[in-house]
Amino acid sequence: MQRVDLPSRALLSVAFLVVCAGRAHAQSAEAEALFSEGDKLMAEGKIAQACDSFDASNKIEARAGTLVRLGECREQNHQIASAWSAYKDALSRAKDPRKHDIALAKATELEPKLSYLTVSIPDEARVDGLVITRNGKPLDPVLWNRAVPVDGGEYVIGGRAPGHEEWNTKVTVLEINGKTSVDVPKFKEIAKLLEPTPTKPVAGSGDVAVDAPVSMFTRNRKIAIGVAGVSAVGVIAGIVLGTSAKGKQSDAHALCPDPQTPCASADAANELSKSGHSLALEANIAFGVAAAAAIGAGVLWFTGAPESPHRVAIVPSTNGVTIFGRF
Q1: How far apart are CA 195 and CA 325, in angstroms?
Q2: What angle do CA 256, 259, 265 make, to 5 degrees?
Q3: What DSSP letter does each residue of 45-79 carry, written as one string?
Q4: I need a labelling partner for 182 at 20 to 30 A (CA). Which of 32, 117, 231, 280 fits?
Q5: Is the pLDDT of residue 231 over 70?
């Protein structure tokens, strides 16, 4: 084992702290520049742009003061729910009593003014692979059938599921004290829309033929479509989880690039790394489920092919009638 004397260790520690402090300072400088830009835009009356600057500053370095300013900006931009959310976030971070009191007062003031949107999904509308969207973005199932605080404005609520027709509707939520609810209907199955109309026999003809109607969408094939939807959801979940895992690992590497060098953020890096490993495992499980579902869907589809149609013909003959059949 290589021996390092105490003075050398002290020098290495000081050098490491200087590097880390330099990075933190650069990051804070970017956040501060965006914060100042937001203040300037607010003064010029460019409220929407100012909110974007405060939001970007907060993403780089989350601070109670930035969240308070973001709340003030959202409030001026008539985004009551977003402003309330920013003040609530500021409360959880505020160490300065003055900022804490401001955030608490504003959150308390806005809470009675909140508007809510409820997306109701009854049991009969819940089919395999169902995805509910709000303005094009998937709505987490935990928010289904719940009154969720939202900003006032127009929202497009949609739904889609494998083997079913897509559905969407528009609703408008009031800026203050709005309570809007959307009821998702039962989804129509595409398979049923494609089934042919049964053939009726033609009266008065000497040759009476009856063709039994056959649909390509048998019971097994309908199940196959649903299983294929599960496979698609598994693939999407695997991609999302895998991307998140990669992001966690990248963040951990960014905090401590060299494992052989002591790192002040080692604990945080380890937590990010563990989280990344967990997400990667979940991604592998999701891909496994997707693969199994895809195989199952293929087997169900090919083994569920419809049987050959039956045909019966009745033709007059010298001895009475002759019956021809194809089965």
Answers
A1: 25
A2: 30
A3: T-HHHHHHHHHHHHHHS--HHHHHHHHHHHHHTT-
A4: 231
A5: yes
Give the number of other CB atoms < 10 A from CB of residue 161: 21
Cα distance from N-terminal residue to C-terminal residue, the chain: 85
The answer, yes or no, to whether residue 207 has pLDDT greater than 50, is: no
pTM: 0.50
CATH architecture group of domain 6-112: Alpha Horseshoe (1.25)
Q: Where does 115-188 sit in CATH, by number?
A: 2.60.40.1120
- Listing DSSP states for 155-204 in one string gives EEEEEE-TTB--EEEEEEE-SSS-EEEEEPPPPPBHHHHHPPPPPPPPTT
Per the CB < 8 A criterion, the answer to whether 95 and 67 are in contact is: no
Joined tokens for residue 229: 């939807």
CA 257/CA 261 separation, integer angstroms:
8
Report yes or no: 63 and 93 within 8 Å, Cβ to Cβ.
Answer: yes
Q: How far apart are CA 195 and CA 214, in angstroms?
A: 8
pLDDT at 23: 42
Q: For residue 275, which amino acid is it?
A: S
Say how far apart CA 290 and CA 234 lie, in whole Å.
Answer: 5
Of residues 139, 137, 138, 146, the one with CA closest to residue 117: 146
Backbone phi and psi for residue 80, each to the nearest 5 degrees, phi listed first: -65, -45
Q: Please state, as a whole number, how many other Cβ atoms lie within 10 Å of the Cβ of residue 229.
A: 22
Ranking 22-26, 244-248, 257-261 by mean pLDDT, the lowest is 22-26
Mean pLDDT throughout 116-125? 94
Closest CA to 316 of 201, 204, 202, 207: 207
Range scoring the smallest mean pLDDT among 121-125, 243-247, 288-292, 311-315: 311-315
3-state helix vs strand vs coil in the chain, percent to 5: 55, 15, 25
Amino acid of residue 189: E
The one-letter amino acid at 105:
A
Average pLDDT, the chain: 79
Q: Could you give the dihedral angle defined by the CA atoms of residues 245, 250, 254 and 259, in that order, rounded to the nearest 10 degrees?
A: 80
